[in-house]
Design goal:
Blueprint: H1 3-11, H2 22-29, H3 33-42, H4 48-53, H5 55-74, H6 78-87, H7 89-97, H8 103-113, H9 119-127, H10 141-157, H11 200-208, E1 220-222, E2 225-227, E3 229-232, E4 249-252, H12 254-261, E5 265-267, E6 274-276, H13 298-317
Helix pairs in contact: 1-2, 5-13, 6-7, 9-10
Length: 318
């Protein structure tokens, strides 16, 4: 099968008019006969069971894996990038990020670049080579750089969080609740008997959102009133060591809650945009809006984002 025929057949299901289309990305990633043959021989069809059971999910995961490996293989230097950028910015960005760059992407990119140097874009990318250019069109490039730098340095130094089971919130603590409880980040020791899940914190947060799911906006009705659930972004247990704090919580319907629990959903820490394992999902790319008094904390989003990326990578490896 010819390269163009393969891309049309396998990735042609995706909306060609979509700004974040795997169809357009495939033409950039598999941009030559050599790349196409390498993809077919070394990546495609390695896990036939996954390929048959979840074809679209499998196709996207394998292409993302190949993209990540190709970026490492090309290993474009800053000097090479800047020279090519002077000739054609769009081509340079496309080659660096290995994704389709469209005119509307460039407009957003220049808007977010502002007075910053284009070198900052390369430096940001160097912290995490699977970074997407699309992210740099939705948030300040300087803020993304600082986030990725902090994340990279933390990984390099292997900083461990100061979780202690004796600091888990107790019934006594929630009588005068604090929406920004972060006791697991302090050294104060308290005595408790068990974890408390349905506290005044969650009830107040549900009231703030009027029991409306922050993802699908559904208000689930029952004979006893509206039903909603509160999800801890970094799970509140002894395994994951999250906190019972508003910065670690999101109000959901039971369906969306299940998707988060299984890491099918994850929130990008830099853009607060929802990502789904299957990028065809209608909520993939949705900006999550919070109400006054509620703000997600990066320490929790980053933890779950790492787990989400691991799942994507495992799916790609089959």
């Amino acid at each position: 099968m010819l390269r163009e025929e393969f891309i049309e057949k396998i990735f042609g299901y995706d909306n060609r008019n979509s700004l974040n289309s795997i169809y357009h990305d495939a033409y950039v990633i598999l941009d030559s006969e050599q790349e196409y043959q390498l993809f077919i021989n070394e990546y495609w069809g390695k896990d036939s069971s996954q390929k048959e059971r979840y074809p679209k999910l499998y196709q996207g995961a394998v292409l993302r894996k190949y993209r990540k490996d190709k970026i490492k293989r090309l290993n474009i230097t800053k000097q090479e990038f800047l020279i090519e950028y002077d000739k054609c910015g769009k081509t340079a960005l496309q080659n660096l990020f290995q994704e389709s760059v469209r005119d509307i992407h460039m407009k957003g990119f220049f808007r977010m670049l502002g007075e910053e140097s284009v070198e900052l874009v390369f430096d940001t990318f160097s912290f995490r080579k699977e970074e997407r250019l699309l992210r740099m069109t939705t948030a300040s490039i300087r803020s993304i750089y600082e986030l990725e730098k902090r994340f990279y340095l933390r990984e390099q130094s292997r900083v461990k969080l100061t979780y202690k089971s004796e600091n888990d919130i107790s019934i006594v603590d929630v009588e005068n609740f604090d929406t920004f409880n972060t006791k697991n980040h302090s050294e104060k020791e308290i005595m408790i008997s068990r974890l408390v899940r349905d506290t005044a914190l969650t009830k107040k947060l549900k009231e703030l959102y009027e029991n409306e799911c922050q993802i699908c906006t559904i208000k689930l009705k029952s004979p006893r009133g509206l039903i909603s659930e509160v999800h801890h972004i970094r799970p509140y247990n002894k395994t994951h060591k999250g906190d019972d704090a508003w910065g670690n919580m999101i109000v959901l319907c039971p369906n969306c809650h299940s998707q988060f629990d299984n890491l099918y959903f994850a929130i990008h820490p830099g853009t607060i945009i929802l990502h789904c394992v299957d990028e065809d999902h209608p909520y993939h790319g949705k900006k999550i809006v919070t109400r006054d008094g509620h703000k997600f904390e990066l320490i929790y989003l980053e933890y779950t984002w790492e787990k989400f990326i691991d799942i994507q990578n495992n799916l790609a490896r089959g």
